[in-house]
């Protein structure tokens, strides 16, 4: 489908059994070389062992999206690993603007907890690039690696709590993300005494952002018909209907993300046509019950946590033209992960468990 962003066809990451609390956990630096998921030949913009701009030694390709390639590099001045996101300057003969926008938003957001630190950005003759903090595996890949292809309630609650905080920060700056999904979230990696961000979720891929606020803080007037932006599986019904996106639509994508992480897949996962996806989404949240008021179709939540149902009801009850009730949504997630706290180990860090083992337990 032309307008639909392609899903990242990444193979699963390799799980490493934890051997000690400092170094060999799923999110440790030791795992990183195994995250080079692609053959070197697939790298089209930079080459392995190249010294990019005389400062970053390219070590391999760790991610590949629809538009960019993400390389693992070594900053030879600071002796520190970095991620370098690169996109060709020209795409189909036109100047690519995605990464320029992404740079701008990332720079504005520096210092915010859920945004990677930027060490450099710019362009060369052929490419636009961003050098940033290296992160761990993305949450879509973590989920794929789990036995039942789902995460425990305490993991999902903490991930989605952080996602909502990340979105609140972005919305406060006046932007909507428009591509919220598990593959656009990564855990941090550092476990040294100076900073421990292994439990911090980072939001990625700001290439589809759009300003929804005017400089005076008011909302921009919506276009009569907006183009499709996002990934079909996760976009709100309003996006299917080509309505201008607002913070509400990012929250709806966070809601579908929560469902997918908890229940292993969204009901429309195998549907190809956007029209069919739209219909199934409608039957999930615009279901005509006995009282003929549209609401949630509880049959699609069988076996799911009642907290997920509450979360959905809170989201679909929101007014898209108003600011989302972030605190209420976070409170919902806190119930999902209680009694754990953000500092507690995630399931896969507990007692030397692999991702496969930990997904067997603590299900919703
Ligand atoms: N700083 C980072 N550290 C480690 N891995 C990263 C980093 N940034 C991105 N990645 C990996 O690369 C993947 C693709 O990144 P990103 O979504 O930014 O690229 P993209 O080309 O914009 O992708 P898309 O197809 O969604 O447009 C992510 O899912 C993640 O696994």
UniProtKB/TrEMBL annotation:
This is non-specific serine/threonine protein kinase. SMART domains: S_TKc. Transmembrane segments: none annotated. It comes from Caenorhabditis japonica. Keywords: ATP-binding, Kinase, Nucleotide-binding, Serine/threonine-protein kinase, Transferase. Signal peptide: none annotated. Residues 56-336 form the Protein kinase domain. Its EC number is 2.7.11.1. One of its GO terms (molecular function) is protein serine/threonine kinase activity. It comes from the Eukaryota. ATP binds at residue 85. Residues 1-22 are annotated as: Disordered. The keyword Cytoplasm does not apply. Belongs to the protein kinase superfamily. It holds the Pfam family Pkinase. Gene3D superfamilies: Transferase(Phosphotransferase) domain 1 (1.10.510.10). It is an enzyme of class 2 (transferase).
């Amino acid at each position: 489908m032309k307008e639909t962003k392609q899903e990242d066809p990444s193979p699963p990451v390799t799980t490493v059994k934890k051997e000690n609390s400092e170094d060999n956990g799923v999110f440790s630096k030791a795992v990183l070389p195994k995250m080079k998921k692609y053959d070197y030949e697939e790298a089209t913009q930079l080459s392995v062992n190249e010294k990019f701009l005389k400062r970053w030694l390219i070590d391999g390709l760790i991610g590949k999206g629809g538009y960019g390639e993400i390389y693992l590099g070594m900053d030879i001045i600071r002796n520190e690993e970095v991620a370098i996101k690169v996109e060709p300057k020209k795409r189909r003969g036109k100047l690519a603007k995605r990464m320029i926008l992404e740079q701008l938003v990332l720079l504005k957001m520096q210092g915010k907890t859920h945004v990677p630190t930027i060490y450099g950005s710019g362009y060369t003759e052929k490419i636009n690039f961003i050098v940033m903090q290296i992160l761990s595996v993305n949450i879509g890949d973590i989920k794929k690696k789990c036995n039942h292809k789902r995460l425990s309630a305490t993991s999902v609650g903490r991930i989605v709590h952080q996602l909502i905080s990340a979105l609140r920060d972005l919305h406060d700056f006046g932007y909507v993300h428009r591509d919220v999904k598990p593959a656009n979230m990564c855990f941090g990696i550092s476990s040294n005494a100076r900073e421990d961000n292994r439990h911090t979720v980072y939001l990625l891929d700001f290439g589809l952002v759009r300003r929804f606020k005017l400089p005076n803080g008011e909302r921009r007037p919506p276009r009569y018909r907006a183009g499709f932006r996002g990934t079909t599986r996760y976009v709100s019904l309003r996006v299917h209907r080509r309505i201008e996106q607002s913070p509400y639509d990012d929250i709806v994508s966070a809601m579908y993300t929560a469902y997918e992480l908890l229940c292993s897949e969204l009901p429309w996962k195998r549907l190809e046509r956007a029209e069919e996806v739209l219909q199934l989404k409608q039957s999930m949240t615009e279901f005509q019950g006995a009282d003929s008021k549209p609401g949630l179709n509880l049959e699609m939540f069988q076996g799911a946590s009642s907290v997920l149902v509450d979360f959905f009801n809170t989201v679909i009850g929101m007014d898209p033209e108003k600011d989302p009730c972030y605190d209420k949504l976070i409170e919902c997630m806190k119930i999902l992960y209680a009694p754990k706290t953000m500092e507690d180990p995630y399931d896969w860090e507990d007692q030397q468990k692999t991702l496969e083992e930990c997904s067997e337990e603590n299900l919703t």
